[in-house]
Design the sequence.
């Protein structure tokens, strides 16, 4: 190659190739990421969006919150469409460009085949010369020069060799490289403007944009929460690992996102000095006397008061209601950051870097609080309050039927009867809301991968836990108006449940076997008889007090057996009903034990007592009840107070001695 030449694009042909590539690299990704999505998403198209008046008002309020949203979307769409128009126009221009460089082919110039003979080449040259010779009327000098050059390349041996080797009969020539930029960029008249634009874009605009982005992003964490707020959460969680949900809400309300200096959306009005104290006064157990900083600051008190008012659904003035919406909208993200901070401290605690690990109750309370804020429900309230048109007047009747949540309402067949106070339109709103609610099915599988028996977990093995979460609608839209009960959903147990198995009474139970292994039946031997029968001593008629004590003891034993049996049979009953029944039995046992303790029992000799209690030959018994029966004094432990013995067991021994006598 004799040499190379670099030149700018004079005609602009190569510049359009560069422009087309640049526009395609910019417009295609921007269209994918910045094309505005339609508000009517898939859920709206399926009709799964709640259409109750409150939800429609919420949608209208969200649209009014961003008045320029529609204008911004139209502007973005217009810019993207202009970009695509530029791409199509540039592509059309590139498709119709005239190529300056064309491969030189002598056979094509002479209009003959590459396999033509020398005679055919001469004949074609003479024929074209008669037409394009400059001396002729139809002559063309440039065309004739090309014809002569092609004829020489095919007839002259050296010219033909150069053409076959270099593509040019004159031999190797200079290679030209074009720069895909227009020539006016390097012209002397435009140098000042070009350098000024370069300095403005790359030395001013780009550094300023990067600096602003870095300054703003350095203040926030991963979830767009201020780092100062995260540090505040870490401090309070480390200070008090166990917190109630009310305490968690107090700390979240002190977040710097609710402070005017960190969030320009927060507004401070002169009317807050009058309206906020009135709201605080109406709230029970607000805790305004807490002097912890920043929990006692004005912005924190206002945010906490409005969050409590939001959960209690208190009516507020238009100004405070606007602030309430701003505060409640930010609260779920702050509670999620609170849980993340607790998880970080938990990992540090297990690593041994901190001494106090957050309690699980604290994180669980924060998670429940997030749902309560979204549903606008106070703590310990019924989940049915999140349904439209359902208030406290319907909660109590539904509670009597054992319905304590949306799942229970879905499971019953007489929903319309239970919600008869609602109109047809309101009832449809309730059904539509139940269709929008999710029912989650969780499937957990534990296994040891790359093992022969993956289901068997051995010591020090790495266990892989796979959780599959399936989201289904709480109420099937196809069966929303059906009168059958969906048995696949667990139903809340009502207070009165039908008896599945009849209770076995105490007198219907089989007789207990004695120590010998056989029941004591007359006429058939078996276990040993009592001592009194073995000695064949005449039985004396027991005194009235002894009969009463014996009857009380038998009643006490039967009641105890019946109590245990009832407790096992009624495990599926309501817990409160079981507690009432157990309390009633305990009272009856206390009365009967007092009655037994008041009975006058006859004295028993030590010899008879040793025989009765089964410790013959021992002069000093060690069991506390035996010592009390034989008249020994109770032993002391460590010089302290005497031991307290089980009075019921001692009375049983005394009753056995009385029967034997």
Sequence:
């Amino acid at each position: 190659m004799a040499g190379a030449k670099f030149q700018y694009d004079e005609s602009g042909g190569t510049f359009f190739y560069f422009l087309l590539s640049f526009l395609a690299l910019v417009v295609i990704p921007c269209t994918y990421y910045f094309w505005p999505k339609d508000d009517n998403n898939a859920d709206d198209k399926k009709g799964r969006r709640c259409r109750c008046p409150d939800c429609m008002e919420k949608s209208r309020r969200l649209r009014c919150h961003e008045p320029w949203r529609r204008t911004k979307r139209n502007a973005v769409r217009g810019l993207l469409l202009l970009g695509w128009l530029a791409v199509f126009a540039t592509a059309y221009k590139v498709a119709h460009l005239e190529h300056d460089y064309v491969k030189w082919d002598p056979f094509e110039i002479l209009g003959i085949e590459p396999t033509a003979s020398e005679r055919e080449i001469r004949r074609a040259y003479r024929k074209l010369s008669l037409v394009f010779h400059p001396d002729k009327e139809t002559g063309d000098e440039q065309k004739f020069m090309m014809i002569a050059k092609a004829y020489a390349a095919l007839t002259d041996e050296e010219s033909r060799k150069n053409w076959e080797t270099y593509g040019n009969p004159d031999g190797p020539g200079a290679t030209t490289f074009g720069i895909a930029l227009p020539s006016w960029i390097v012209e002397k008249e435009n140098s000042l403007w070009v350098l000024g634009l370069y300095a403005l874009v790359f030395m001013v605009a780009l550094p300023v944009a990067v600096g602003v982005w870095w300054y703003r992003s350095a203040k926030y964490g991963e979830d767009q929460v201020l780092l100062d707020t995260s540090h505040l959460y870490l401090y309070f969680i480390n200070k008090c690992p166990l917190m109630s949900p009310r305490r968690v809400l107090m700390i979240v309300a002190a977040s710097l996102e609710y402070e005017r200096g960190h969030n320009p959306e927060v507004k401070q009005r002169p009317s807050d000095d009058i309206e906020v104290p009135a709201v605080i006064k109406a709230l029970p157990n607000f805790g305004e006397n807490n002097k912890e900083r920043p929990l006692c600051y004005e912005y924190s008190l206002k945010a906490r008061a409005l969050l409590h008012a939001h959960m209690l659904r208190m009516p507020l003035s238009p100004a405070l209601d606007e602030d309430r919406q701003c505060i409640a909208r930010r609260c779920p993200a702050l509670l999620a950051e609170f849980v993340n901070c607790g998880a970080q401290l938990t990992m540090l605690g297990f690593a041994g870097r901190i001494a106090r690990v957050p309690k699980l109750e604290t994180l669980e309370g924060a998670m429940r609080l997030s749902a309560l804020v979204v549903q606008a429900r106070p703590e310990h309230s019924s989940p049915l309050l999140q349904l439209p048109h359902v208030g406290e007047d319907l909660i109590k009747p539904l509670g009597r039927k054992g319905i304590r949540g949306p799942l229970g309402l879905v499971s019953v067949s007489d929903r319309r009867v239970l919600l008869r106070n609602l109109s047809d339109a309101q009832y449809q709103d309730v059904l539509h809301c139940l269709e929008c609610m999710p029912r989650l099915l969780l499937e957990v599988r534990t296994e040891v991968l790359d093992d022969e028996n993956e289901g068997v977990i051995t010591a020090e093995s790495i266990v892989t836990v796979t959780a599959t979460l399936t989201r289904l609608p709480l109420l099937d839209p196809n069966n929303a108006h059906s009168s059958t009960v969906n048995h696949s959903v667990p139903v809340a147990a009502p207070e009165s449940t039908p008896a599945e198995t009849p209770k076995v009474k105490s007198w219907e139970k089989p007789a207990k076997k004695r120590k010998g292994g056989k029941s004591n039946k007359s006429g058939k031997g078996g276990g040993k008889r009592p001592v009194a029968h073995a000695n064949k001593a005449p039985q004396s008629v027991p005194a009235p007090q002894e009969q009463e004590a014996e009857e009380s003891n038998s009643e006490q034993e039967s009641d105890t057996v019946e109590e245990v049996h009832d407790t096992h049979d009624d495990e599926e009953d309501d817990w409160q009903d079981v507690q009432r029944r157990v309390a009633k039995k305990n009272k009856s046992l206390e009365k009967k034990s007092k009655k037994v303790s008041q009975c006058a029992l006859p004295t028993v000799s030590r010899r008879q007592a040793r025989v009765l209690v089964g410790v013959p030959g021992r002069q000093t018994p060690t069991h506390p009840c035996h010592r009390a029966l034989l008249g020994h004094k109770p032993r002391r432990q460590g010089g302290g107070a005497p031991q307290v013995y089980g009075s019921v067991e001692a009375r049983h021994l005394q009753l056995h001695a009385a029967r034997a006598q």
Remarks:
- The radius of gyration is 48 Å.
- The chain has five domains: 4-95, 106-167, 188-217, 227-436, 545-560+593-635+644-661.
- Residues 524 and 580 are 45 Å apart (CA to CA).
- The chain has 25 helices and four strands.
